[in-house]
Amino acid sequence: MKFLFSLSTLPLFLAASSFAQNKAPTLEEVAARRWSEMNADRIAGTADGQGITLSDVRRQIEPVISQIRASAKNDSEFNKALETAAHETLKNIADRQLVIAEFKLGTGKLPSMYIDQEIEETIRRDFGGDRNRFVAALREQGTTPLAYRKTIEDKIVFDYMIGQIRKAAMEVSPGRIQEYYDKNKARFLRKEQFQIHQITITQGAAESAEEAETRAQTWADAVGHPEKIPDAIAKYNLTNANQKGKELGFADVAKLVSSDDYAAKGGEIGWFDIEQLNEKIGKTLNTLKDGETSSAIKFDIPGARKIWLILRRDGHRDKGYASITEQDVFAECENRVRAESTTSVVEKWLNELRQKHLVETR
Q: Of 257, 254, 114, whose CA–CA distance to 196 is shortest?
């Protein structure tokens, strides 16, 4: 495999993209730039005999030029970053062509039905099923239905081949997961945490503060003693409550009466660092045991109606390292090991293809 990177002609199409140039180009500059784009094209490299042109590289780099410019401090840094992006893009295009070549060597030809289905879905989704609009859009982009079909075919083939390689790397052993956890244990250091459910009672527009507090304490008593929930529902005429043959609990009451964003989830908030919690809430949680509910805690918010919170403590974690036996910790380790394994396997496979097929970049 040869690597003779020299994209010296590439800056011709970027002449108007100088880091320091912010004003709109003149008509003469636009014409000169367009002439350069049309006449400076050449083969930048080949992969398995398939040519890669500078225009191929340009098409992929142009959408990110503004992002590269924004992150550069001066012209020199911009040009260096642009050259790096051009080389990386050329390498990616070559890899893509090698993957497609490998498919053709092994599997052969992609059944046309897969390409037809993809194109029909695009026409349906993006053009309301109007094929004429689809063809017109291709014409505006300077391409043809036949060229677009080839693009779709290459995409399907590439995604399929990479998917097959990644699939082989998806299975990871418990030993590798444990090894990752041991090497990255600092990532799982956490502060003291509580797991919480919450019901928020807000003072009604036609309700006095005393009436609202009575209502809040009634619900706090009910969720603490679930057998009282039906009576509380009847007291406040919540006729939409489904009580048929069902024992109601904290989550049901939260969905019925809570006025916060957690109501739809039955009041479930999840785990919180104690440092993130209001001091009054933190002290209340420390007095509860797991599974216990609090009385209604009053909060006065200046310029707003009074609110009361009813809390249920669901769990507690001391400050320290999260155990790998915890489901979320194990899942994070597994996902990270799988991602690393997938990246490694794909890169190894691409290296083998680069050795197997002739790649030359000029």
A: 254
Domain residues for the domain of 179 are 1-108+174-188+330-362
**Distant-in-sequence, close-in-space partners of 360: CB < 8 Å, separation ≥ 6:** 2, 4, 45, 46
Q: What DSSP assignment string belongs to 261-290? A: TTGGGTTEEEEEEGGGS-HHHHHHHHHSPT
If asked whether residues 84 and 158 sit together in one domain, one would say no
Are 276 and 213 found together in one domain? yes
Is residue 91 a part of any domain in this protein? yes
Q: What pTM value is reported for the model?
A: 0.53
Structurally, the chain folds into a number of domains equal to 3
> Could you read off the pLDDT of 69-89 as tens digits, one per residue?
888 888 888 888 888 888 888
Q: Are 319 and 190 in contact (CB under 8 A)?
A: yes
- Same domain flag for 299 and 159: no
* 327 vs 104: CA distance, rounded Å: 43
314 lies in the same domain as 349: no
Same-domain check for residues 99 and 4: yes
Count helices and strands (H / E) in the chain.
Answer: 13, 9
In this structure, is residue 324 part of a structural domain? no
* Mean pLDDT, rounded, for 4-31: 47
Mean pLDDT across 146-167: 89
Query: pLDDT digits over 43-57, tens only?
Result: 666 666 676 767 777
Phi–psi pair at 359, nearest 5 degrees? -125, 130
User: In whole angstroms, what is the distance from residue 170 CA to residue 4 CA?
Assistant: 35
